[in-house]
Design goal:
It is found in: Bacterial flagellum basal body; Cell membrane. The protein has about 325 residues and is α+β, with helices and mostly antiparallel strands. The protein is about 35% helix and about 25% strand. Among the domains are: about 50-230, 3-Layer(aba) Sandwich (Chemotaxis protein chec), CATH 3.40.1550; about 255-265 and about 285-320, Roll (Surface presentation of antigens (SPOA)).
């Protein structure tokens, strides 16, 4: 942040220069000298503030989609919010999570590399309890999951990645796929310990149980698409979405779509015995008089009223009236 001098400080500085206490040339030399800033190579900052803002925006949508998904699956109150998006070494992330937790390791083509969705045991066991008919309360002591519990967790989180795919659509079409589910962080090594990761922390509440869901995305995975995470790129994408050429192309495709059109003379109901007793020459009474127009339907919607006729020895229908949208349908 740039320091702003007060009027008194400016006056004191001018007085010092005029009296010779300060040398103007020395001040110029200080300005031209290179300023040294300390840099920690173990905590390399590879995501700019612009990238962090974009990741925050994407995963706020992810949190909303995930809230809807888990609410429907668990049939209870679920609230998920983005708490923080930060960058830190992968090793620091591993040391910050519990020794017994739920680690969903996944890939998201076309991105190359593996990512992790870490779910705190309190949240994971509350989900299990709810799915198995309980009230959604996590046990006091956390133990390793059984084979059945592991399969249930894999199924619910495999479908949860659809929410991640939806959230990333504005930037890139990805196809997340769960590869493995681990419970011990020491057995999970997706990148080198010093590799920088983006850590998206989501505060989660299921009923009365609270905990964290952490999404770990290594920098090497996002590096090929870093340019798409800039605010400038977001502006361009939103602008491109409404260009006239694309609107015209969409109109042309819609205009070529085929719809069934049916001209209905009328409707009649017969019993099975009456239907089986029909023979050549029998007359079937319809539900409307002869002078009433035909109901012309596009798909299942009544759109026109018409009259029957012929053109060059072919059966035809003449449109006499257009049914206005919202008006009462023609009495069949």
């Amino acid at each position: 942040m740039v320091d702003v001098l007060s009027q008194n400080e400016i006056d004191a500085l001018l007085a010092a220069l005029s009296s010779g206490e300060m040398d103007a040339e020395e001040l110029k030399k200080e300005e031209t000298q290179k300023k040294i800033r300390s840099y920690d190579f173990k905590r390399a900052l590879r995501f700019s503030k612009d990238h962090i803002r974009s990741l925050t925006r994407i995963h706020e949508n992810f949190a909303r989609y995930l809230t809807t998904y888990f609410s429907a699956q668990l049939r209870t109150f679920v609230q998920i919010n983005v708490v923080q998006v930060e960058q830190l070494p992968y090793d620091e992330f591993i040391r910050s999570i519990p020794k017994m937790t739920v680690l969903n390791i996944f890939e998201a083509e076309p991105l190359v590399g593996r990512m992790v969705l870490e779910v705190h045991p309190n949240i994971a066991y509350a989900m299990l309890d709810r799915l198995l008919g309980g009230t959604g309360i996590a046990p006091s002591s956390i133990s390793s999951m059984t084979e059945i519990e592991t399969i249930i967790m894999e199924r619910i989180f495999s479908r949860a990645f659809d929410s991640l795919q939806e959230a990333w659509k504005t930037v890139l079409d990805i196809s997340p796929r769960l590869e493995a589910l681990e419970t011990n962080p020491q057995f999970m090594q997706i990148v080198s310990p010093n590799e920088t990761i983006a850590l998206i922390s989501l505060s989660t509440k299921i009923g009365d149980t609270t905990g964290m869901i952490n999404l770990c995305i290594p920098h090497v995975v996002l590096e090929p698409i870093m340019s798409k995470l800039s605010a400038h790129q977001w502006f361009i994408s939103e602008k491109k979405a409404s260009v006239p050429e694309e609107v015209d192309a969409l109109k042309q495709r819609v205009s070529k779509a085929k719809l069934p059109i049916v001209a209905e003379l009328g409707v009649s109901q017969l019993t099975v015995s009456e239907f089986l007793g029909l023979s050549v020459g029998d007359v079937i009474s319809l539900n409307k008089p002869m002078h009433d127009g035909l109901s012309i339907k596009v798909g299942d919607k009544l759109k026109f009223i018409g009259s029957p006729g012929t053109i060059k020895d072919r059966v035809a229908v003449q449109i006499d009236e257009i049914v206005i949208e919202g008006a009462e349908e023609f009495d069949e």
